[in-house]
């Protein structure tokens, strides 16, 4: 375990507020439980060349996404926001050789990096990467009557979260799982001043989910190597 550089003893009542302790605990569980092979390490490292360096999910969060995929028995996954394809590879492995992941990425520069990572991971055959604005790509999937998805991961530009949810609802079956990343952002979600469009995107999608008669949902805060953030998880009845 990494030595903490802060002075909170392990039993200190303030240790829970320590970002260093969060990182130490992430490091402990990641080392103990998660196998990141060379392909995943390369995918993570390659994210520094993308338009949003280091925005990919943490290893233990990616493993959680993979486990949810398998617990749900999901074989078809739709992802909004590919970046370097780190979480995509976790999904691709979770759905197995007979599964499919469709991942939507705005930036061709990021897509090029992701494609290399999919090839290195030997999952290129089960990953379809579509480049362009996520909403337009999703609309084309809807128009083409694509087979319904079992799980949708929304992890792209936050102001578009409500639009991505609306598309996800047209692209999923009963029982499908919808997961939204970055719903806490250092607590910004409860800053109701309404000036940050990313916060607005999270609050609006939360409201839409709350008001949707077919969705059961919760949100879980996370702390760790990525700071203080959280995931919203919804299931379609
Ligand atoms: C940002 C986006 C993400 O999806 C993330 O996990 C972290 C940061 C961002 O837009 O800065
Ligand atoms: Mg994210």
Quick overview of this protein structure:
The protein is α/β, with parallel strands linked by helices and 237 residues long. Helices cover 40% and strands 22% of the residues. A 7-stranded mixed β-sheet has the order 3-2-1-4-5-7-6, sandwiched between helices.
Question: Major β-sheet, in short?
Answer: 7 strands, mixed
CATH topology: Rossmann fold
Task: Provide the gyration radius in Å.
Answer: 18 Å
**Overall pLDDT level:** 95
Rough outline:
globular
What ligands are attached or bound here? Answer: 3,4-dihydroxybenzoic acid, magnesium ion
Question: How far from one another are the termini?
Answer: 42 Å
Describe the protein:
The chain is built from eight helices and seven strands. The protein has one domain: Rossmann fold, CATH 3.40.50. Helix 2 runs antiparallel to helix 5 (108-120), helix 3 (59-71) runs parallel beside helix 4 and helix 6 (134-143) packs parallel to helix 7. The protein has a seven-stranded mixed beta sheet with strand order 3-2-1-4-5-7-6, with helices on both faces. Strand 2 (100-105), helix 5 and strand 3 form a beta-alpha-beta unit. With 237 residues, the chain is of the alpha/beta class. The chain is globular. The protein has helices at 19-33, 38-46, 59-71, 86-95, 108-120, 134-143, 161-170, 197-211; strands at residues 76-80, 100-105, 127-131, 149-154, 172-181, 215-224, 227-236. 40% of the residues lie in helices and 22% in strands. Bound molecules: 3,4-dihydroxybenzoic acid and magnesium ion. Magnesium ion (MG) binds next to loops.
């Amino acid at each position: 375990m990494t030595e903490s550089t802060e002075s909170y003893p392990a039993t200190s009542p303030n240790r829970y507020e320590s970002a260093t302790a969060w990182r130490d605990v992430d490091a402990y569980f990641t080392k103990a439980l998660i196998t990141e092979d060379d392909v995943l390490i390369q995918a993570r490292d390659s994210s520094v060349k993308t338009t949003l360096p280091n925005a990919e999910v943490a290893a233990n969060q990616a493993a959680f996404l993979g486990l949810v995929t398998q617990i749900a028995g999901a074989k078809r996954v739709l992802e909004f926001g590919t970046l370097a394809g780190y979480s995509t590879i976790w999904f691709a492995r979770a759905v197995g050789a007979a599964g499919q992941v469709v991942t939507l990425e705005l930036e061709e520069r990021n897509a090029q990096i992701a494609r290399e990572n999919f090839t290195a991971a030997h999952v290129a055959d089960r990953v379809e990467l579509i480049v362009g604005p996520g909403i337009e790509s999703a609309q084309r999937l809807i128009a083409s009557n694509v087979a319904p998805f079992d799980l949708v991961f929304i992890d792209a530009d936050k102001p578009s979260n409500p639009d991505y949810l609306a598309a996800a609802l047209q692209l999923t079956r009963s029982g499908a799982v919808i997961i939204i990343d970055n719903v806490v952002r250092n607590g910004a979600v409860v800053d109701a001043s309404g000036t940050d469009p990313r916060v607005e995107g999270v609050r609006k999608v939360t409201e839409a989910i709350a008001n949707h008669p077919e969705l059961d949902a919760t949100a879980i805060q996370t702390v760790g190597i990525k700071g203080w953030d959280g995931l919203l998880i919804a299931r379609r009845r």
